[in-house]
Structure formats: structure tokens, C-alpha cells
Amino acid sequence: MRKPFIAGNWKMNTDSHSGVKLVQDIIAGCGEIAGNKVDVAVCPPFVYLQQVGKALSSSRVALGAQDIYFEQKGAFTGEISPAMLKDVGCTYALCGHSERRHVIGETDELINKKVHAAILGGLLPILCVGELLEERKQNKTTEVVTRQMKKGLAGLTPEKVSAVTIAYEPVWAIGTGLTATPQQAQEVHALIRELMAQMYNKKIASEVRIQYGGSVKADNAGELMGQEDLDGLLVGGASLKADDFVTIIKASA
Ligand code: PEP
User: I need a surface site. Which of 174, 177, 189, 242 has the fewest CB within 10 A?
Assistant: First the structure.
């Protein structure tokens, strides 16, 4: 039985005050659900990790980073190491979010190094995959997601891959208000689970949690989560409003 996992990606939003208030309201709204019925995480901007981490430290809402660097320390100006993220209380790290792939230009090879580094540093990576609109129109979704999965997880042993959550986020649905239909999402989630069976084994495929992301809102979360292979949600915009995020968590319980 896969426990639902809902994560909020705050992207480059909030400030120190509003970030702390947001997480406090989420904790209060979730009550006993967080950590018991649903795993919940928030991913604030790097600079607010410590303050938000302090605000959630006595709750069961976990802290996640929006990105990570693969080196342990040294002359990498502007980057943040796995040990630094651990030090401020992170449990999770997003790897290969579509905005990092398509706005910043991260490659599958770089993302793979980040996934390895996160695991080595004791963090749980959330590997994001998903096709562009043109790729979907050209019927390339399977090809793109297969490539991102194989390259993103390259070199991971079965023991290590059990630390990974996959987030399927069709790029055309992120921040656009266009959500994949539950059927479209389920189709790709089933493909991802099948890929995990081929690359690893059936047990790992049945245990891996696969989140959907892309304009998830309070009113579509329940229907999406009703799909067989959807185990959670990666939520951007709607995670910035405590009431909406709590409704999404409750709909997933
Ligand atoms: C995201 O940031 O991963 C995301 C899915 O954003 P939104 O929910 O705003 O589409």
C-alpha cells in the first residue's frame, strides 16, 4: 500500500514572514492527517529553508529543497550541497523540475548526478519528468518520459532507487491552468511504473510513489488521486494558499 505523498513547490515566492505563516497555517489545517494518512512536504526557496524548517520542526510536515547540487563542497559559487540541505533539516530534494530543465537548461546527465548526490547525502530525491506540448502533439510523450527516467535513474542500484519518488509533470500543464485529464495522467503513470519494472523489478515498481504535477487545484485533486497509479501530487501555485493546499491534502487522504 503506497501512502499518498503531497508536496508543495513554492518556487520563487513568499518572504520570510509569509513563508512561516503559510507553513503554520498548513500544519494547523492538516491536523493529524500529515504524516499519518498522507506524507506532506513543503519546498520553500533556499533562503527561507531554515526559518520554515524551524516553524515545522515539531510537526510531521517535512521540508524539501527545490534543487540541489551534486558536489559535496568547494568552489561552486551559488550552489547548495546535500550536506547543507541536511543541515537545515531537509528530507526531500526536487531534481530536474521542468523549470530547471527548460528555463535554466539542466540536462538529464546533470539531473542524474543530483539524484545520486541527494541519496548519498541522505536525502530523498523527487525526480521530475514530463514532456513539452510540442512533444505531446508529436506523440513523443512515451519516448521523452522513457529517456528522462532511464537517464535520470542511471547507475542507481535497487536499494538506492527505493529512496526516489517520481513526479510526472507534463510541462504544458505547469502553471498554465491546463491540467492533464485523469486518464492522460494515469496513462503516463502506468508507463512509469512499467519502466520501473523493466529497469528494476516488480516489487520496486509496485512500491515507487509517482506524483502528478501540473495545475493541481483544490477541485481537481480528488479525481486525479482516484487514478490507480497516482500516489501523490506535486503542487505549485495552489500550495501557496494554505486553505487550498490543505483541501488538496485532505482530498488525497
Ligand atoms: C510545479 O511547480 O511543479 C507545478 C506543478 O506548478 P503548478 O501546480 O502551479 O502547475
Answer: 177
